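Anyone up for a design puzzle?
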């Protein structure tokens, strides 16, 4: 979370490989480190400020985890933003993200 909250893609780069896949709605599922970092740059540009806080992490076995998180901040031209997020993350043995998928409680802010 520290790397994500930095809002600097160069800090996120170490978590992904060309084989990584993520799905962060409303975007479609994408694969590859460069495309993933481009998506994060686009996400960060939508906010004046944004921060994530993890409340619980549940191990699912096989290097898979379920995160219960809240994101909050200010969206450009939309004002205050807060959302509850459930995230499933699958890590490789080397600690890289193989697959990440977010599920948002409220998607109205993205419309």
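Challenge accepted. My sequence:
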């Amino acid at each position: 979370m520290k790397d994500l909250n930095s809002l600097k893609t160069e800090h996120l780069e170490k978590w992904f490989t060309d084989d990584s896949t993520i799905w962060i709605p409303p975007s479609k599922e994408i694969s590859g480190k460069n495309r993933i970092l481009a998506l994060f740059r686009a996400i960060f540009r939508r906010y004046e400020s944004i921060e994530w806080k993890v409340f619980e992490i549940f191990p699912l076995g096989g290097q898979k985890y379920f995160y219960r998180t809240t994101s909050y901040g200010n969206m450009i031209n939309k004002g205050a933003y807060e959302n509850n997020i459930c995230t499933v993350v699958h890590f490789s043995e080397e600690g890289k993200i193989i697959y990440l998928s977010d599920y948002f409680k409220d998607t109205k802010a993205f419309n």
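A detail worth pointing out: Helices lie at 2-5, 9-12, 33-45.
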